[in-house]
């Protein structure tokens, strides 16, 4: 419907769109008509009232009777100024819970709608003006109870969800701590393996150094033994030579001595005998000194 046509149907504060073959509510055009506090859209072909319809918070009286409406806006409770609501002869099976917020609602007709049994009992027959007023009060109160029950269930679900979240948080923390302990244990295990490997290498190096030290000492001792053996052999050889010379000299002096005994009248023999004895004593002294030196070197 053109905007001008809608405005043409405005008379004072009443907007009459009844019997207009409407299939869609012209919300955009109606939002421009803030003077229209009484709206009549009865006897049309409407099946749904769009959600943005509740933006017209200035509505006081709304007639939606004799349509094919199956659903009202969930936030219809935003129409805080609404006092009169006619839903007669539609196809509504339920009413929005937000109707509990319609504080100004004084008149409601829901007759000839396929409402559930509970809502039929609450709303009553709506056969006259008094029953429609009673219907408005009872529906608002009932919807408050429904909202309270829904809120209670919502809070219960939230509590259950919080408990589940807390339980999951505790389990996650336990798992985190377990992983932390496992990580620490694995780190400790690797540290022990590292220390054991270091200790093994240190022992191997120590054993190798000890073996090398023993080998070096053994070689050194063998060298000293060989040197001592050579020294002893050399000392023995020197002693043999000296003793040989000593015995040779003694033999020579002995021969000269015997000769002088036979020729003792010769002056040379008398003088030579004395010198021979002196030489023998000197050789004996030197020989003993040499032998002692050799023994000292061999020690």
Automatic annotation (TrEMBL):
<protein>
    <recommendedName>
        <fullName>Disease resistance R13L4/SHOC-2-like LRR domain-containing protein</fullName>
    </recommendedName>
</protein>
<keyword id="KW-0677">Repeat</keyword>
<dbReference type="GO" id="GO:0005737">
    <property type="term" value="C:cytoplasm"/>
</dbReference>
<keyword id="KW-0175">Coiled coil</keyword>
<feature type="transmembrane region" description="Helical">
    <location>
        <begin position="235"/>
        <end position="259"/>
    </location>
</feature>
<keyword id="KW-0812">Transmembrane</keyword>
<dbReference type="InterPro" id="IPR055414">
    <property type="entry name" value="LRR_R13L4/SHOC2-like"/>
</dbReference>
<dbReference type="Pfam" id="PF23598">
    <property type="entry name" value="LRR_14"/>
</dbReference>
<keyword id="KW-1133">Transmembrane helix</keyword>
<feature type="coiled-coil region">
    <location>
        <begin position="143"/>
        <end position="212"/>
    </location>
</feature>
<keyword id="KW-0472">Membrane</keyword>
<dbReference type="InterPro" id="IPR032675">
    <property type="entry name" value="LRR_dom_sf"/>
</dbReference>
<keyword id="KW-0433">Leucine-rich repeat</keyword>
<feature type="domain" description="Disease resistance R13L4/SHOC-2-like LRR">
    <location>
        <begin position="62"/>
        <end position="146"/>
    </location>
</feature>
<dbReference type="InterPro" id="IPR050216">
    <property type="entry name" value="LRR_domain-containing"/>
</dbReference>
């Amino acid at each position: 419907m053109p905007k001008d046509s809608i405005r043409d149907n405005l008379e004072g504060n009443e907007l009459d769109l009844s019997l207009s073959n409407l299939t869609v509510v012209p919300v955009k055009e109606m939002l421009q008509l803030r003077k229209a506090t009484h709206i009549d859209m009865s006897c049309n072909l409407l099946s749904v009232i769009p959600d943005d319809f509740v933006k017209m918070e200035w509505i006081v009286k709304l007639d939606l009777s004799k349509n094919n409406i199956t659903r009202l806006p969930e936030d219809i409770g935003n129409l805080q100024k609404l006092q009169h609501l006619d839903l007669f002869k539609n196809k509504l099976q339920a009413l929005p819970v937000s109707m509990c917020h319609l504080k100004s609602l004084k008149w409601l007709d829901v007759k000839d709608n396929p409402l559930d049994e509970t809502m039929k009992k609450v709303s009553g027959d709506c056969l006259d003006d008094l029953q429609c007023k009673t219907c408005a009060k009872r529906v608002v109160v009932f919807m408050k109870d429904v909202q309270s029950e829904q809120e209670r269930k919502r809070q219960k679900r939230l509590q259950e969800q919080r408990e589940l979240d807390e339980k999951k948080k505790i389990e996650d923390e336990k798992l985190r701590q377990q992983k932390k302990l496992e990580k620490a244990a694995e780190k400790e295990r690797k540290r022990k393996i590292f220390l054991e490997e270091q200790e093994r290498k240190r022992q191997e190096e120590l054993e190798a150094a000890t073996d090398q030290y023993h080998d070096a000492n053994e070689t050194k001792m063998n060298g000293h033994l060989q040197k001592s053996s050579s020294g002893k052999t050399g000392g023995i050889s020197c002693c043999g030579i000296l003793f040989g010379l000593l015995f040779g000299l003694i033999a020579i002096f002995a021969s000269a001595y015997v000769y002088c005994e036979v020729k003792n009248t010769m002056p040379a023999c008398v003088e030579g005998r004395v010198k021979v004895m002196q030489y023998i004593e000197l050789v004996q002294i030197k020989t003993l000194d040499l032998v002692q030196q050799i023994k000292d070197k061999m020690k």
